[in-house]
Design brief:
single chain, Rossmann fold, CbiD-like, 6-stranded mixed sheet
């Protein structure tokens, strides 16, 4: 899809010029935020793009053809371009969620089976399938927003226009909606969002339109437009807070003068670079000044291998190094190995994953990429990922097809960023790979024919008949995947390709927490509102012993109790069963929500205090306090008839956990000893009494 505005003007009958000679282009796969004060022309532009208004002057083109004005072509336009209103109440009208979403599919003249299939797929895409039978007036505002998006997804629209998508949403719901938009974009949906929120636009968009009085003042990258004080002044907008913070850091020499971080993790990387010297990372063997080496992600390895393969394909000569531009605009130079080159036909190479000093099981794996031009007629595979990329020196686009082979897993359960049936290639590394391919095309196409060696590749390429294929593979990935979280996440046949900043911070807990959060999201995506939290494998044994084990509803949380309770509340769970050994649960009862011993350890002290409240004698209290383990202390407690200690611990753990999430969740507690004996249990109705 390509949508063009050529000198488009629109005047209302009273003479107000809402759009003034505006020219721009919206391409398939764009993720654009449109900013401007009230009266800038944003809403008028949306009405022009959906055919509700006709330009007073200028031309609107869709895929090179003039915009339709009536009849069937206009209906087809509105099927391809959908508008999500600021207030979903203005869009929704049916009795139930399912009836609302199905209406659009019915209007397309589809069969009953096709309507059901599309409706279910649309509801799954926006994570409201469990609400299918619910009346619309019983939904929260955020849920109505999701349903209004599903209204358009069911018609398979090419472009989603969203008017203030986060308006009137609380921060948690707004974050959830942002995650949904990112997921839709990763699946190929083109997005144009109108917003007043410069902070959100700065971190979310790949491109921004800045408007004032019907004029398009800026069209380009967020870091450029939202740091341009002249443009912001004309548009009556303020500079994003993160941009202001980065400016102060640049002035004080804390970050590079060329660095414009747009997201918190990018700013955190800048600070880490200050502490660890990570800005100088250039591959294996380079020590950071703090003594721990930073590494690079599987996603960075795949992107570098793909870029190098494309470079060699065009250049006709081997490369032994490749410089990758990371999301934070720093450079990472990697060594290229296992080169196989057939000039003008194909090029293959590998990059060895280097996790630095992080204990990553994928460290040392070879990530292969093969690049070649193929006939479009022979390219169809449903699992392939497709993108359109510009060709240097030409006005048309080339189809890039990414195919994942050996050692890269496939997604089999909903709830992950990638679709079911697609490769386990997350949106961030996929976008990084596309940027690397664009970089290679631009860099090596600019060489002279003598340097390039394959003159016909770009100048004579027939983009209507030919595609660029990138095939990724990771030998040994399937075996390594069995030792990761992937089997629990429903990723089969290999590892997943992950990465956000492109680099791996040594000894960080972030990746661990992100894995747990992904698993929790998948439980929610299955439609469950209740989840079981176990600290480890013993917890699973307890669940099986009491016939409670349900793999779809169970997450092993390690020591991250507080983090996982917060995320459960944020994702809309209503009930949590927290179960585990006395040694962990006694910490929770004392208000300790990161239960690793290096963080806090007052197990025996807490048990001693509870035993004192239960009437234990001084001698008994001393025996409990001096016990070597909590199991030994539990024996002392039972032998002295103080079993009320366990009940008190369970009640306190439930109450503390409920207070931690401000009463949003109903918390159940089960406490066991080392032999698997149930010591105490609290159900959700008891939590409400004790809380």
């Amino acid at each position: 899809m390509k949508l063009q505005l050529n000198q488009v003007t629109f005047e209302y009958p009273d003479g107000t010029r809402a759009i003034d000679a505006m020219s721009c282009c919206i391409n398939s796969g764009d993720k654009i935020a449109m900013l401007g004060a009230n009266g800038a022309g944003k809403s008028t532009l949306f009405m022009l793009l959906t055919g509700l208004l006709k330009p007073t002057d200028g031309k609107l083109l869709l895929d090179g053809n003039a915009y339709p004005t009536r009849g069937k072509p206009l209906r087809e336009l509105r099927r391809r371009i959908g508008l999500v209103f600021q207030n979903p109440e203005d869009q929704l009208f049916a009795m139930t969620v399912e009836q609302e979403v199905a209406f659009g599919a019915i209007n397309l003249g589809l069969t009953e089976q096709e309507v059901r299939g599309r409706t279910r797929a649309a509801l799954e895409s926006v994570a409201v399938l469990e609400l299918a039978e619910k009346p619309l007036h019983h939904l929260s505002f955020g849920q109505k927003k999701r349903v209004s998006i599903a209204d358009l997804l069911v018609m398979d629209v090419d472009l989603l226009l969203l008017d203030e998508p986060a308006a009137w949403l609380d921060p948690v719901s707004a974050e959830s909606l942002t995650e949904l938009l990112d997921t839709l974009h990763s699946r190929g949906c083109t997005l144009l969002c109108s917003t007043h929120d410069v902070n959100w636009a700065y971190s979310w968009a790949d491109r921004v339109f800045i408007m004032a009085e019907g004029n398009l003042l800026f069209d380009g990258e967020p870091a450029a437009g939202l740091n341009d004080m002249q443009v912001l002044g004309r548009a009556s907008l303020k500079r994003p807070l993160l941009a202001q913070t980065a400016e102060l850091m640049r002035e004080r020499g804390l970050i590079s003068k060329n660095s414009f971080p747009r997201r918190m993790h990018e700013l955190a990387w800048e600070l880490d670079r200050l502490d660890h010297g990570a800005g100088n990372i250039r591959g294996r063997g380079n020590e950071a000044s703090g003594g721990l080496r930073f590494g690079y992600t599987t996603g960075s390895s795949a992107a570098a291998a793909a870029g190098a393969a494309v470079g060699m394909l065009i250049r006709g000569r081997a490369l032994n190094k490749y410089e990758l531009v990371l999301p934070d605009d720093y450079r990472l130079t990697v060594t290229i190995t296992n080169v196989e080159l057939k000039p003008g036909v194909s090029a293959s190479c590998a990059v060895r994953k280097d996790a630095g000093d992080d204990p990553d099981i994928t460290d040392g794996l070879l990530i292969f990429a093969r690049a070649g031009f193929i006939s479009r007629s022979s390219s169809s595979q449903s699992a392939d990922l497709i993108a359109q990329i510009p060709l240097p020196g030409r006005t048309d686009n080339l189809t890039l097809r990414v195919r994942c082979g050996e050692g890269i897993g496939r997604v089999t359960r909903i709830g992950l960023p990638a679709q079911v049936g697609k490769p386990a290639l997350n949106p961030e590394p996929y976008n990084q790979l596309i940027k690397s391919v664009k970089q290679a095309l631009s860099l090596y196409s600019s060489e002279s024919p003598e340097q390039r060696g394959v003159q016909r590749c770009i100048p004579e390429l027939d983009t209507d008949e030919t595609e660029l294929l990138i095939e990724l593979s990771i030998p040994g990935g399937a075996e390594v995947a069995t030792k990761t979280y992937n089997p629990r996440l429903g990723i089969k046949g290999g590892i997943s390709i992950l990465g956000t900043s492109g680099l791996v911070r040594p000894m960080s807990e972030d990746a661990w927490q992100e894995s747990l959060l992904t698993e929790l999201r998948m439980v929610r995506a299955q439609g469950h509102t209740e989840v079981y939290f176990a600290f480890g494998q013993y917890g699973l044994s307890y669940l099986r012993e009491f016939s409670l084990y349900d793999p779809e509803k169970t997450v092993i949380i390690s020591n991250f109790v507080g983090f996982m309770l917060e995320q459960a509340a944020r994702l809309g769970f209503t009930h949590v069963l927290l179960l585990g050994h006395l040694g962990k649960m006694i910490k929770v009862s004392a208000g300790i929500f990161q239960t690793h011993s290096k963080k806090a350890d007052a197990r025996l002290e807490t048990l001693t205090a509870y035993a004192a409240l239960a009437g234990g004698s001084p001698d008994t209290l001393r025996l409990i306090y001096e016990s070597a383990t909590t199991d030994a202390a539990a024996e002392v407690i039972r032998e002295n008839g103080l079993d009320a200690v366990f009940d008190h611990a369970a009640a306190q753990a439930a109450a503390r956990a409920q207070q931690y999430v401000h009463g949003v969740l109903k918390i159940g507690i089960m406490i066991f000893d080392g032999s698997g004996r149930l010591l105490a249990q609290i159900k959700t109705d008891e939590v409400e009494k004790n809380g």
